[in-house]
Every structure is written in C-alpha cells, then in structure tokens.
Amino acid sequence: MPDTTPIEPDHVERRSPALLALLVVVGLEFAALVVVTIVLVVELVVAPATSIASGIALTVLAAIAALWLGSLFIGLRNRRPWVRSGIIVWQVLQGALAIGAFQGVFRVPAVGWFLLIPALLGITLVLSRPVTDALARPVE
Q1: Predicted local confidence at residue 60, as pLDDT
Q2: Is the pLDDT at 4 greater than 90, yes or no?
Q3: In 3-state terms, what secondary structure has residue 113?
Q4: In sequence order, what DSSP letters do the residues of 17-74 get, joined into one string?
Q5: What is the separation, in whole angstroms, between the first and last Cα of the chain?
C-alpha cells in the first residue's frame, strides 16, 4: 500500500512580526482604496460631477491605484523582493496627500493624520531589518 501522507518541508519559515504588521498596513490601505474606488463609481452614477470627464478620470486612476496596491499586497504576501520599492513609493505618495490634507483652503487634519500615520508606519516597517531579510533574494 503506497504512503499517502503529505510531504511537508523540514524547515517551515515563519513570518516575522514586522512582516505581518506590514502586511496588515498594506492590506488595510488596499481595502480602503477599494472602498474609495467603489464610492467614486457609485457617486459618478448617482450624482454626476460637474465635469464628467474629470469624474471618470479620477475613478479610473483610483481603480488603477487599487490594482497596483493589490499587486503589492500579493507580492508582499509571497515575499517578492520587488515589492519594497513599490511600497516605499506608495507610502511617499500617501504622505504627500496627508501633507496636502493639513494645509490649504480645504484642510481636514483628521484625514491628514489618517493618511500620515500608516504611511510613516509602512515606510518604517518596509525598511526594517526583519522585513528586508524576509524579502531578500535567496543566495544561489
């Protein structure tokens, strides 16, 4: 009778707490961006913008950004080394939006903090030693 027990690797590598925290941060940012995209689509249908072209462009850009962030999340979950640069770019862009939310005529500090705190946390985590080691290319 053949042996049908599943073969498991001898060495199962655990994810570090820093990598798990970065997964949570990027996952929550991805979920928030998906919600924003859905709200923009609904708003475009229910209450059309003054400029339909601008409303459509904003919705398409939000959808593209959500797809990009989703691919970064999946790549991070699969420990792909290329995600580090994309995550840093996303966090810098999010930080720039946060700074814009703190100033100007239409400033909303609560939104600024809501954007800035995860951005700073994400940059800190992606540059930390445990995440860098987890995403390093294996030596051949």
Answers
A1: 96
A2: no
A3: helix
A4: HHHHHHHHHHHHHHHHHHHHHHHHHHHHHHS--SSHHHHHHHHHHHHHHHHHHHHHHH
A5: 38
68: pLDDT confidence band, cut at 50, 70 and 90?
very high
CA atoms within 13 A on the CB side of 85: 2
Q: What's the rounded Cα separation, in Å, for the pair 84 and 91?
A: 11
Question: Which residue in 48, 27, 44, 41 sits closest to 118, CA to CA?
Answer: 27
User: Is the entire prediction scored with pTM above 0.90?
Assistant: no
SS3 call for 75 = helix
Give residue-wise pLDDT tens across range 6-44.
Answer: 565 555 567 889 999 999 999 999 999 999 999 999 999
Measured between alpha carbons, how far is 39 from 47 in angstroms, rounded to an integer?
11
Phi, psi of 64 (to 5 degrees): -65, -45
- The pLDDT-based confidence of 106 (bands split at 50, 70, 90) is confident
79 backbone φψ class: left, alpha, beta (φ>0; ψ -120 to 50): left
Query: Amino acid identity, residue 24?
Result: V
